[in-house]
Batch of 3 targets.
Target 1
Amino acid sequence: MLIINADDMGASRSTTDPVLECFAAGTITSTSAMVWMPDTVRCAEIARARGLPVGLHLNFTLPFAADQVPDEIRRRQLTMTRSFRPDSWRGADHGIPTAELIAAAIADQLRGFRELFGEPTHIDGHHHVHLHAAVLTQLPRTLAIRPPLSPDTGRSFGQRWLLRRFRGPATCLAFAHVHPALGGGFDQLSDARRRTIEVMVHPAQESELEALRSPEWHRCLAGFPLASYRDLRA
């Protein structure tokens, strides 16, 4: 099966709207959304109305930017953003918070997500933060998890832990690995006929949006069984 997941929904209207366009065109099958961001509430209303499959895009690298965030949750998020950076998932250490604080921050975002969207189909992370060892050990095992990008398959602690303890696709590819217009090749998807592969896309990026709109992408998708994280069995 092939899952095409669009990240960052809810971050802003300019991020959400291209994701919705791609759903309507049938060029993505899944998305993940951020909580307590400028467009979270609007995108949640649309997602519920359309029955879209949405996971939590766990965010520990950006402050919450919605107008109304509970003070305690806002303060906890600021602690996360001082500790986690875009490179943290690779093991870079900037003073990681305690396990209890990380668990509380994950619970904040899951609770906020469920209040607006319902149950998440899966968890992935902004800047892959869900793959940091300190975060991975605190994630609920009941939810599917995005695996590491395939070019980064070295057996780190986090990757070994994920493969043993969580369900999810066999591998994940960036859109740049797959679409010829972005430097990739459709042959990277050949295994999707016998195992589940996720393609991670960012429709807010103009180059990726154009590739998602392309006739070549439509023809490519016609050759594979398409799915979302909803289709992964517990």
Target 2
Amino acid sequence: MPLGLTLSKGLEDLLGHAADSAQISSLLSYLELLTKWNSSYNLTAIRDPQEMITRHLLDSLSVLPWMGEGELLDAGTGAGLPGLPLAIMRPQMTVTLLDSTGKKIRFLRHVKRQLALKNIYPVQARLESWQPESAPASIISRAFSSLADFCSASRHLLQHETRLLAMKGKYPKSELEDLPAWVKVDSVEKLSVPGLQEERHLVIMSVRI
């Protein structure tokens, strides 16, 4: 199946309606750049573009219904996932793409220029030491090793209204039990990714008052 058709059908399943053609074009352009740079920068272990659509683009966008208002920080963004696809689909949302690896930030800056994305800001820094001018409304991660580590590394950025969004595979029962007392689990949402049969969950957390 052509890449554009796979993406269009997947987005329609996620959104419940046909996606904007300009957004589809931007997502495919990002995928093309990711495939091109991956050969020398080793940005992702997935090499097949069809699989990238499912496991990277649609997986990232499966959290769209839980995206709130305000600035989003993608912590440990790597190749820009999930923050970059979310920024394409939500052009009114400001997204900071944070990663400590220079080559990944260079790639994301190139994507920003090539796709003329005005709402993404690639930043090279470690989450636990990053000091922004203002705290983000939400912090999302797709790659942290554990929920406790994610919360601890984010703690200096958290205000009472800040949401922590952790993307996980199987229901993370033991990780939830290991969370520190100051973390409140607001909900654990089961995600549905078109074309993917594996389990996916989104853990939504905040600071306990």
Target 3
Amino acid sequence: MKQPCPCGSGGSYAACCRPLHDNRVQAGTAEQLMRSRYSAYAMGRIDHVFRTWHPRNRPEEIEPAPGLTWVALTILRIEAGQSDDNEGVVEFEAAYQTAAGPGVLRERSRFTRRGGRWVYLDGDVA
């Protein structure tokens, strides 16, 4: 049985986000990068999160939050960020579970191209 991709695309992890996590392919759109970053958090592939964060804004170190499990991603809105754009915005909700109970992170993330590749620039948490 194929493992479903955490990003919610409906595809398998092996065919969807894993090639991006393994750095075999690059995201073609800001949404694809957003989904792969969410999946990276969900799968513990923090190396992908670090690698796809704009170096100007990237923290020195990224650590997974102990006891936090990401359970669902919902894309709310996409502005630009297509294969022929240089900037894009993806607004999303990411549901999570902790020992204290469930929660939802809502963010409006900005993406830009750097060296021809999509990278996460920054985001506003709602």
